[in-house]
Amino acid sequence: MPDLKTWFFTEDCYPDLPPQETYESIRVDLPNKYCEPENASRLYNQYLDLWCAADEMGLEIMINEHHQTATCMVPAAPIMLGILARQTKNARLLILGNPLPNRNQPVRVAEEMALIDVISKGRLECGFVRSVPYEAAAANILPYKGSERLWEAHDLIMKAWTTHDGPFSFEGKWYHHRQVNIWPRPFQQPHPPVWITTGSGASTEPVAKNAHVAAVFLAGYSRVRPIFDAYRKNYRKFHGKHAPLDRLAYCGLIYVGDNERNAEAGANQLMWYMQANKVPEHWKNPPGYHPPPVSANVLRGAHVSGSGAAYSTELKEHMRRGNVFAGTPDQVFEQIKAFWEYSGGFGHMLMMGQAGHLSEKNTLRSMNLFNDEVYPRLRELAAAWDPEEVMEKRKTMPDQDHADINNLAVDFVR
Amino acid sequence: MKSWWFTEDCYPHLPDQDTYRSIRVDLPNKYCEPETAHELYNRYLDLWCACDEIGLEIMLNEHHQTATCMVPAAPILLGILARQTEKARLLILGNPLPNRNQPVRVAEEMALVDVISKGRVECGFVRSVPYEAAAANILPYKGTERLWEAHDLIMKAWTTHDGPFNFEGKWYHHRQVNIWPRPYQQPHPPVWVTMGSPGTAVPVAEHKHVGAVFLAGYPRIREIYNGYRQAYLDKHNEHAPLDRLAYLGLCFVGENEREAEEGARKLLWYMESNKVPQEWSNPPGYHPPPVSATVMKGTKEGSGVPLNPTLDQQMARGNVFAGTPDQVYEQIKAFWEYAGGFGHMLIMGQAGFLSDEDAVKSMKLYSNEVYPRLRELTKNADPAELWEKSKAMDAKDGVDLGTFGVEFVR
């Protein structure tokens, strides 16, 4: 029976920053003097506590990594994942993901993931990402041909995970490695489930071919169909059957409140994630990262000023777009249901449930409400999923377009 | 004197040694049964958590593609212990810098763990042993040079707080370095570096880092420590404090001699299991030519089978300390005086099939009955005086270990 899993996610931000006007960028070159160690320590432990709470209440866990940024203080997600492997009991542990083109030793990634898979008794779900453009500078890598490196590193890692009879050598275009024979091997056989982020129809092809989970971040109504549809089409092409529901994932901001007023207050705090993302062009459009037409779009600028200030973000507008789901449990269920049906369905709801100054208490309240009152209904919805029926039903819902989401999302959706 | 409890996290359930050529690099991972490995990792983590409660400090390390040490990413285990322990200092000895070609990532990982643990990281950097070269897929040549250049980049990454810097070295080039988070400890976490000869001790002493020596025993300890002390004195015009030197040995404390001997024999698995053929133990370019020649002369017709001296011989050599609390204290004291003193005892306290129960029992006996006396011994010790006394003692030799140990001491 098809199911829907919900994954609780926070980026582990450091929100206690000076006024945005006083710095040019929140990423890459914001001096780390602003990262006060005592405060950072409190925050890490608070975020880890939230993930442990997710495990206790029955939500799955998702984490990610970024570098040199106050938006996400995790420069090494495998370390956080290792902690959670040991401190949680039931939750699946999704890392979305390992920035393969930026880590030039794929075999080490294979080792790290296998280690965590074994410690957690096979609860790892392993994401691989090309990573967003701002990461190129911090990672000190050439942004060009990142997708090609992603897939070659993927091939090497898959081979490292599944080879058990002694060393092999790998001679690729980008990676060359002799004597690969990792210890430990993964707990899950043949290998942990693999997830890849997809930002365009074209990028779904290799994901579908490998039957990996394709995750889409913040594509909203305007872009989710072309991407999910391309995945489904590619999946049929390669496997001769409908893509199961659990092959598609969608990440949005979610806040569930006891009433509309506190739901709106919580969601507005989550919006920090979008409002804080002030990044100048030289970090978000490094030469070679984007294909030329996308690069040209970015160059035209999100704003007339071209200041790089974060795109002005209205909660209501983002809710209309399908980037944010917020309200009472009934409202949030209806919002997600509408988006889910519009998109043709997906089996994983990635819930960015904490950001900015949203307190631990209010985050937990929303998680609990979601878990008790929204999640069961979403699972019922998914259980009744029929791939052909949902597409029939979709015909009654015309394509929706929305105002250009501009630079915030060009990292995710192109 | 601080004591650090250490286990390599081995996977001891292997077929007969005669059925494989090497326990490292190419022993197929089919032997690593996931369910067993899962239990082992959690047992070892429990042992480290017990250290924290008992009052010992924590040490861990990493190796690759080997059943002798199932930790291919020590920062992950360190992260777990940062969150699950309260007081213990957390020593990673160490990060194999020449084998990890992104030093800035190492700086980030260590800063992250330092912040999560509220400043309890003690960060070791190592060149790493020769068998690691193949698994890491790196050129073994000039590893020491890469170690120190990566060290410089990491130190700069840890201590720069006012925005990005560029680093243009011989081996590493990195623009826009500005790590988030920065370390909790200011100016930076304490740094440890392993040393295996008087020459390698010099830069460690010059940086005032802790110099750690593994299993040098009576035959080699003095020349290495003396190299450190002399370089420290030359550079800083004062004697190296005791807390700048560390020694690692196998240690088992029992309630009586019989129990101690049994436990210590089990620890010897660490040495007895280390079957490694020449192509892994002597990769071209790793050792200087004279050392390489020694290795090539080989033991047991170059089979790579360890020589396996007896427990008594290993004890006489100063590689293993084992016995009742009184005996272990006397053994360590004698070695400590011969060595000219050191401030950190690194205890390999678990290996092979030694059970949790036995390991914890030994930890507690050590902690309750040996540790206080060692601290008393070192409390008012004067480094200059200890050094003079040590120099006056007759040199003591020990049993030949063949190629074992050449990766630690050359």
Radius of gyration of chain A: 20 Å
Provide the domain count of chain B.
1
Which regions of chain B have little confidence, pLDDT < 50, spanning 5+ residues?
none
* Biggest pleated sheet of chain A: 8 strands, parallel, barrel
User: Could you say which structural class the secondary elements and strand pairing of chain B correspond to?
Assistant: alpha/beta
Q: Which fold name corresponds to the CATH topology of chain A?
A: TIM Barrel
Low-confidence stretches of chain A: 303-310
**Ends distance of chain B:** 26 Å
Tell me briefly what this model is.
With 414 residues, chain A is of the alpha/beta class. Chain A has 16 helices and 11 strands.
Mind explaining what this structure looks like?
The complex is a heterodimer of chains A (414) and B (410). Chain A is of the alpha/beta class. Chain A has one domain: TIM Barrel. Chain A has helices at 37-57, 77-87, 106-119, 135-139, 146-162, 204-209, 220-239, 260-270, 272-275, 281-284, 292-300, 315-321, 329-343, 360-383, 387-394, 406-410; strands at 5-10, 60-63, 93-99, 124-129, 168-171, 176-180, 194-197, 213-217, 248-256, 324-327, 348-354. Chain A has an 8-stranded parallel beta barrel, surrounded by 6 helices. In chain A, strand 1, helix 1 and strand 2 form a beta-alpha-beta unit. Chains A and B meet through helix 1, helix 2, helix 3 and strand 6 of A and helix 1, helix 2, helix 3 and strand 6 of B.
